[in-house]
Amino acid sequence: MWTARRGSLYHQLWRRLIDDYDYDAAASDSQEHPSDAVLVGFVIANIVGLRYYTGTISGREMVGLVREPLNPYDPNAIKVLNTRTVQVGHIERAAAAALAPLLDSCLVSVEAIGDEGKIAPLKPPKEVIVSELFEHQKEGLGWLVGRENSCDLPPFWEMRDGSYVNVLTNHQTSERPELLKGGIFADDMGLGKTLTLLSLIATNKPGGFPSSSTSNLQGEDERINSSSGRKSRSGKTVIKSCKRRKLDGGEVQKNEALGLKTTLVVCPLSVLTSWITQLEEHTRPRSMKVYLYHGERTREPEELLKYDIVMTTYTTLSAEFGDPSSPMKETEWFRVILDEAHVIKNFGAQQTKAVIALKAERRWVVTGTPIQNSSFDLFSLMAFLRFQPFSIKSYWQNLVQRPLDQGSKSGLSRLQALVGTISLRRTKSAENGSKGLVGLPSKTIETCFVELSAEEREQYDRLESEAQNTIREYIDADTVLHNYSTVLHIILRLRQICNDVALCPSDIKSFLPSNALEDVSQNPELLKKLASLVEDGDDFDCPVCLSPPLKTVITCCLHTENPETP
Question: Where along the sequence do coiled-coil regions lie (predicted)?
Fold first, then answer.
């Protein structure tokens, strides 16, 4: 369970990215503003005439505005182009009348970005998924399928004069950028992400075509637009396949997943039972073949590809990372799903390197907390998703992290555009002005005081006195910050006494860590423990300030400490 402090920090960071979009900085990635440029304001306007044009936009995609003074129907006309320079429609007449004179006089520059639309719901095939999905789960399934089947250019890519240009790096290539079939599924805990993902596996089969039984939702007029997973502008969008669609260079996209069907699910060991339970509860028996790659397991990749789902753990992947004959390395998966993916936030950990090295066409990051400490937590997720250029550390530092650290709006706008395009985040209840899905009533907190028994009071008072003496010693020696973990440990033990005296040792000195530190290089056992902690990806975040330590040591009693906590 998240503490209030950590949960609040996460929500502040995440809602800042999702909700408080900085419109004045949104398009600063594609061009530099003059040093004397100032924000005049922003206008929210509708795009009209959608049914007359072929261009489409996904949520929060940057769009171009071009004046059409010779338009026979409206001399103030401003057409809207998507990132591939295909016309989507026109700015509504009232807004165009106000903007056109300003554009014509060259007094202002206008930049625009599309907002998120309503996600079209989708039903999974009943021959596989026997449970009825909630409406938000159907919409989530529609978004997942739309992300996987999209043939649009990845964010920040444009087509110019027959070439593809990245507007952030100005990199130009004649080859179409690799499709980004996946993203971040970041729904709040308790909204049924596992069932939604099982529905994705059952629905979106290899070849890019969702199951035929999924179109019978709210009539035939509300199918899924494969480019964005949202309702089409005409209400009658046929599901498209990247395999047969003509792309912007005249080339036909090859479906690399042809013949593959296996989805690899990677999760912590404690979550494996949840997946198994969900499979038993929500899927028809024998409708999907599942293999548990844990403990005694096969070494043949061909055997794994016989199954619809293969489940394994981060620890198993980490243990086999150095084994060149590991089936995990050799197998080309149709889809990889990282559940509780925030555990790979440590980019240097072996388990992170192991999941990044997996071969797959479709990649999903699933976590209710994609950001825990800072925006840099997202870099490992970008590396797994292989979302270039953000999957390259130097580009992430230059385009996002350094501008953010320096307080530049460009870094925030890039991160907001990135997150808004490839992630889906919904919450159970309203928070920070957002609309929740479940509509829970406001939280009611009642404080009840319970009188301790005579034995509990005696034990509590005695340990409290010893704890006060210990903390007073730290204060006198000015070492409180160096021993913060001990202070928290004392508080924990005192709380345990309030529940049951059997939970707490009788002598407080018995659980206080030693102040003696030992050079790890002189103790092979400590060296081995430290190496295993780093390789397994255990983080050393300070439980008080939630920041990584500046220097980590292990005491001779194998207690991990940070003697330089700020």
Answer: none
Fold of 38-108: Alpha-Beta Plaits (3.30.70)
pLDDT tens profile 242-259: 333 333 333 333 444 445
Chain length of the chain: 566
Residue with tokens 């404080």: 447
Q: Tell me, what amino acid is at 462?
A: R
Query: Residue 10: is it exposed, middle or buried by C-beta count within 10 angstroms (0-12/13-18/19+)?
Result: buried
Check residue 452 and report its DSSP letter: P
Q: Two tokens at 440?
A: 């829970």
Query: Rounded to whole angstroms, how far apart are CA atoms 522 and 538?
Result: 23
Q: Taking the model in full, what pTM does it have?
A: 0.61
The whole-angstrom separation of Cα 341 and Cα 361 is 18
Q: What is the pLDDT of residues 272-294, one digit of tens each?
A: 999 999 999 999 999 999 999 99
What tens digit of pLDDT does each residue of 417-462 get? 778 778 888 887 655 444 566 666 777 889 888 888 888 888 888 8
The CATH number of 135-424 is 3.40.50.10810
Query: Where in the chain are the domains?
Result: 38-108, 135-424, 454-507, 520-561
